[in-house]
Amino acid sequence: MKPLTILHTESSKGWGGQEMRILQDSQLLTRLGFPVVILCQPDSELFERANQKGIKVETISMTKMNLIKGFKKCQQVIEDEKIDIVNTHSSRDSWIASLSGRFSKYKPIICRTRHLSIPIQSNWISWVLFKYLADGIITTGEIIRKNLIDEHGIPENRILSIPTGIDPSVYDPEKFPEMNKEIYGITPDSFLVGMVSVIRSWKGHLDLVVAAQDVVKKFPSVSFLIVGDGPAAFQIKAKVKELELQDRFHFLGFREDVPRILSCLDLFVHPSYANEGVPQAVLQALAMKKAVVACGVGGISEVIQDGLNGKLVPPRDPTRLAEAIIRLVEDQQTRKSMGERGRIDIQKNWSFEEMIEKTLAFYKELLRKRDLQKKRN
Predict the structure, then answer these.
(1) Is the model's pLDDT at 123 over the cut of 80?
(2) Mean pLDDT throughout 292-299?
(3) What is the CA radius of gyration of the chain?
(4) Contact present, 196 and 258 (Cβ < 8 Å)
(5) Closest CA to 259 of 343, 175, 203, 355
(6) What pTM, to 2 d.p., does this model score?
(7) How many Å apart are CA 261 and CA 346, to the nearest integer?
C-alpha cells in the first residue's frame, strides 16, 4: 500500500508561526516517507525556505486577477501528483485548493487547518468553506475548535485540535551553557526580559513598552530584548523613544538564532491580546526552561499553567503585566522552578512526534469515512 501523498497550500507571503508549522509538518512527513508537495506563492518566504529544505514546491499566483489560472494549476498538481490529502491553511488558498480538489479526477480529502482564534464570519461564504468543502478541520488549539463547534455548528467528529509541536532537541538549554548577553549589546549584570514575535499591533508590544516604565522604576538594571520585525515596528520604536526608554530596549529584528537568544533571557513575555492559536515562541521559551508571562488569550492558556510554568495576566493591562514581571524579577527560585516545569511539559505534551502522529491519524480517519460513505452509496 502506497503512503499518503499530501499537498499543503498557503496563500500567505509572510513568515510566522503558521508558515513555520507547514514547513515543519512537511519536513517530518518527508522524513517518515510520505511524499509531500507545498503549493504557495512564488514570491513568498515559504517558497524560499521549502526549497532550501529540499521539500517539493509548486507555485501559483493567488491574487484575485489570477484565480482561474491558480485553480487550473492546483487541479493539475493534484492530478499529476496523485494527491490523497489536500491540507489548506489560509482563506484564499482554501478556496482555490478545495474547489480544485472537488473538480479534479483524482478526488482527494480536503482538510482545513485553522491556526488563529479570530472568529470566522457567520455567513454563507464561511458555511461553504468550512462545512461543505472541507471534509475535516484541524485547529491549533482547543478554544478554536470549541468556537467552530459552538458558534458555527460544525460536527465534533469532523474537527480535531492538534497543537503545534516543537523539537526539544533544537530548543535545548543544555546546548547553550554560557549565556552571553554582551553579544546583543547588553551588560552581563542586566536582568533580561525578552519577546520573540512578528511585530503586529495585537501581539502586545505596546503594552510591554508601557509596562516597562514601572519595571525599570523599581529595577533600573532590567533590559528588554525585542526579536522580530513587522508592520508595527516603527510605532513601537516611537513609543520607546517617547517614554525615554531607548537605553532599556534593544531591537534585534528578524533572527534565525532564536534558541541562542532565548538562552540569554532571564524571563520571556508574550502579551498578545487577540487572534492567537498556540504561539510557537511560547513553546520554544518553555522548552528552553524560561518562565513565561503571557495573556491567556486563544490557545495560550492551554500551554501556560498559571503559577506552575508561568504567569497569566489580563490582556491589554500594562499595570498587571508590569506587576507579574516585577514579581518574577524578585523571585529567582520561582523563575527556576517554572522553567524546569515548562521543559517537562514540552517534552511530554508538545513534541513534533505527537503532532505528526495525531495529524496522520486524522488524515487516515477522514479517508476511512470517505471510503465507508462510498460503499454505502
Answers:
(1) no
(2) 93
(3) 22
(4) yes
(5) 175
(6) 0.86
(7) 19
